[in-house]
Write a structure and sequence with these properties.
The protein has helices spanning about 15-20, 20-50, 60-105, 110-115, 115-160, 160-165, 170-210, 210-215, 220-270, 280-320, 380-390, 410-415, 430-435, 445-460, 460-465, 485-500, 515-530, 540-545, 565-570, 575-590, 595-604; strands spanning about 345-350, 355-365, 370-375, 400, 405, 420, 505, 535-540, 550-555, 555-560. It is α/β, with parallel strands linked by helices and about 600 residues long.
Length: about 600
């Protein structure tokens, strides 16, 4: 496959078919050659049989040799048709998977609140496989049925139009049965795929939360819930299987009626003889071969119909993702040649529904400066961090980088400027080194490994990484399940440091570390602030004190702003945070035996 831009590929059934039209045309041409060859074999068989039972049986070898040559040609044509059409189906699957991932990367939180990861995985695996069959095996069978019907009908009508009509006595029944099964197959397939999506979602959530399930001893309840979902899928799957299983025999029985009619009336014509309005032995044999070529595709059409309806239902499920509108789209402004890294918020307000999370937040941060955002839980700190990185739909004109509205910047440019380390650290199910070097083109190269080790050292996780069983090559498990919360958080911090963006946003990177590690990480953050603009979201006064500016949020509004010393002198919310944390620290030290009671009283 050649390189392509997934965003420019068609995400419709007809659009994908048109894109691969040359492959389908090649396949159609060789299928036509195959059926033409089979048509000629029927006629040569008639000649061979008539010669065999006629006055010159010794000449029967001539048509037999032509039959052999045509059979070989038909074989290669049949293989070639599958090569072109099946490959087209696999190419469609390959491109649709790329379109799906590209779309998922662009969709925002509103979409992921409505569709679970299990549902998405079901569409990315089972539904895509059904679409591949639709564009491969389904197209092949539909085209083959048309050509087989035309090829066989030419032979049958030329031999006897009366015998042809008699042989088609069951076609109306076949048509009604096919239409009935077609509607039911589509509905059953949608139900089956939806049940599979729920099953995948339940399995994925149990795998991701296996520690929570075990810690609450909820294995029995989760098994019961999973059994109910599994039973729902089994019911839907068996219903679909019963329908598919009954369709073949019913179509076969209807077709067999036509074959019986042929033998009844055909034998009558054969007994009459060609001189008395009947048919010859060669005619009877050629007609039976043509009828057989027509009967099998009609029976197989039931299976092809099943594939078509399953593929159609799966494509509609995929279109729920393709047609979803992203919350955030990039601007049309050209990427700036040079970025300094100044950051400014101007009257930033944001609401979740009717609940106002941020209200008129304003600050101005020059390139290379550091800012701490402090506030109690629920004050809007993490929402502000997401808006600064434009991971939520940021209001136009509210945030500027180097004077440019971030809504005007292309998303790729903005993502390269702003690095974001989230509070709930997410790790991929791969090695420690690949998690830290996620943003690097070749994380396994010696140069990349040196950067990864330096970032791990800055994030105070180097020694722990070297202490793991396979050191940096240790697989961290699903979402980093093999690591502690503090280790996951520091690896995520190291990943942000490797990226070396102009603006670094750290959302509470110290919530799961001890005091000693916190001090070392703060030293690293302080060093980072000399190289780039740093925004530190934190609830710890010790961390905020390292930053040049501090903004205190209270119920989404800026309650205070200034330096650490200024805010302590104001005796406001920040000063009360400092006092609370000082007392908490002394009590913790007292509990560890590091501070005696008289010392604590003296400190107070």
């Amino acid at each position: 496959m050649t390189a392509f831009d997934p965003s420019k590929l068609p995400a419709t059934m007809l659009g994908q078919f048109r894109r691969h039209l040359p492959q389908y045309l090649y396949g159609v041409v060789v299928l036509a050659l195959f059926q033409l060859g089979m048509n000629r074999i029927d006629w040569l068989s008639k000649s061979a049989i008539d010669l065999l039972f006629g006055a010159t049986p010794q000449l029967a070898y001539r048509p037999a040799l032509f039959i052999l040559a045509l059979a070989l040609t038909a074989f290669f044509s049949r293989v070639a048709s599958r090569f072109f059409i099946f490959n087209a189906g696999r190419d469609v699957e390959y491109e649709m998977r790329a379109i799906l991932l590209d779309r998922l990367h662009k969709l925002g939180t509103a979409f992921y609140r409505k569709m679970s990861s299990g549902e998405i995985m079901s569409r990315a695996t089972s539904d895509l496989a059904q679409v591949r069959l639709l564009y491969g095996f389904g197209v092949l069978n539909v085209v083959n049925v048309v050509f087989a019907f035309a090829s066989a009908l030419q032979v049958m009508l030329h031999i006897s139009w009366r015998l042809t009509l008699v042989s088609f006595v069951t076609v109306p029944v076949l048509t009604l049965v096919t239409r009935s099964f077609s509607r039911q197959m589509f509905l059953r397939t949608k139900e089956n795929q939806a049940a599979l999506g729920k099953l995948a979602s339940a399995m994925q959530s149990n795998l991701a939360g296996v520690r929570v399930v075990r810690s609450f001893a909820l294995e029995k309840q989760e098994r019961k819930r999973f059994d109910a979902i599994n039973q729902e899928y089994l019911t839907a799957s068996l219903g679909l299987a019963r329908m598919r299983g009954s369709m073949g025999p019913m179509l076969g029985a209807a077709s067999a009626g036509g074959v019986l009619a042929f033998f009844w009336y055909g034998s009558t014509l054969l007994l009459r003889g060609a001189d008395d309005g009947g048919i010859t032995k060669g005619d009877f044999f050629a007609f039976s071969m043509a009828l057989g070529r027509m009967t099998w595709p009609i029976i197989a059409m039931g299976f092809a119909l099943s594939i078509l309806q399953r593929g159609r239902a799966s494509f509609l499920r995929l279109q729920e993702i393709f047609l979803a509108q992203p919350d955030i789209v990039g601007g049309g402004m050209a990427a700036p040649e040079h970025v300094q890294g100044s950051l400014k918020a101007c009257g930033l307000s944001f609401s979740h529904g009717d609940h106002k999370v941020l209200d008129d937040v304003t600050f101005d941060l020059r390139a290379g400066e550091s800012l701490a955002i402090v506030g109690r839980t629920g004050s809007g700190k993490s929402t502000l961090a997401l808006l600064l990185a434009r991971l939520l739909p940021t209001p136009r004109g509210a945030i500027r980088i180097d004077g440019n509205d971030i809504c005007d910047l292309p998303l790729s440019t903005l993502r390269s400027i702003v690095g974001y380390a989230q509070q709930d650290a997410f790790l991929f199910s791969t090695t420690v080194s690949r998690n830290i070097g996620f943003a690097l083109d070749d994380p396994d190269s010696p140069e990349s490994m040196a950067r990864i080790r330096d970032a791990a050292r800055e994030a105070q996780v180097l020694e722990e990484a070297l202490g793991l069983p396979e050191q940096f090559d240790t697989v961290v498990g699903e979402r980093g399940v093999q690591l502690s919360g503090g280790q996951r958080q520091r690896i995520a911090l190291a990943r942000a440091l490797v990226w070396t963006p102009k603006i670094l946003i750290l959302d509470d990177p110290l919530s799961a570390v001890d005091a000693k590690t916190e001090a070392s990480i703060l030293d690293a953050i302080e060093r980072q602030s000399k190289q780039r603009t740093v925004v530190l979201i934190t609830h710890r006064v010790a961390a905020a004190a390292r930053c040049g500016q501090i903004v205190v949020l209270d119920q989404g509004k800026v309650a205070e702003r200034g330096t650490h010393e200024q805010l302590l002198a104001n005796k406001g919310i920040y000063a009360s945070f400092a006092e609370e944390q000082r007392v908490e620290g002394e009590l913790a030290a007292l509990g560890r035996g590091e501070l005696s009671i008289p010392d604590a009283q003296g400190a107070a």
